[in-house]
Design a protein that fits this description.
By secondary structure, the protein is of the alpha/beta class. The chain has helices at about 20-25, 40-50, 65-70, 105-115, 125-140; strands at about 10-15, 35, 55, 75-80, 95-100.
Length: about 140
């Protein structure tokens, strides 16, 4: 079953690998897909600020730097359970973690987030965890 609602569009950014060509060519879903290719970081931040949800359904992802980048732009994230940055999705306000490869869970996640319009807030810079570590080292207690 193809997930999609009227008005949905999938924007894909980043280098398009030749190995993905068969999948891209075979796609027959309802949702239009727009491939943007690699874009500058400044443009990526603009795209994220105007997007509704970052979806990272990776089968394996050591961390996924794009997750804190998206969160910094106020963009909630839906990531697979194999994305290392899933630990940043500590509350459902920030996004959703779905089981890797579970198409039904991905569809349910997309439908649920399509009903939400709020942006997220928080400190997602590299300075925030560094401050936490320094505070913990000095006091032995985590800050809130």
């Amino acid at each position: 079953e193809s997930v999609g609602e009227p008005g949905w569009q999938l924007d894909v950014t980043g280098t398009l690998l030749d190995e993905t060509l068969p999948d891209r060519s075979a796609y027959r879903g309802k949702v239009p897909v727009v491939y943007h290719g690699a874009i500058a970081a400044s443009k990526l931040a603009e795209v994220m600020r105007h997007s509704d949800l970052l979806v990272l359904p990776s089968l394996e992802e050591g961390f996924g730097l794009v997750v804190p980048q998206a969160l910094s732009c106020g963009l909630p994230c839906a990531v697979s359970s194999m994305v290392g940055a899933k630990d940043l999705i500590i509350r459902t306000d920030y996004g959703t973690v779905f089981p890797v490869g579970d198409e039904e869970a991905i569809g349910n996640t997309l439908r649920a987030w399509s009903l939400r319009t709020e942006r997220i807030t928080g400190e997602w810079s590299w300075a925030a965890p560094a401050k936490q570590m320094l505070h913990l080292a000095r006091t032995g207690r985590m800050t809130k």
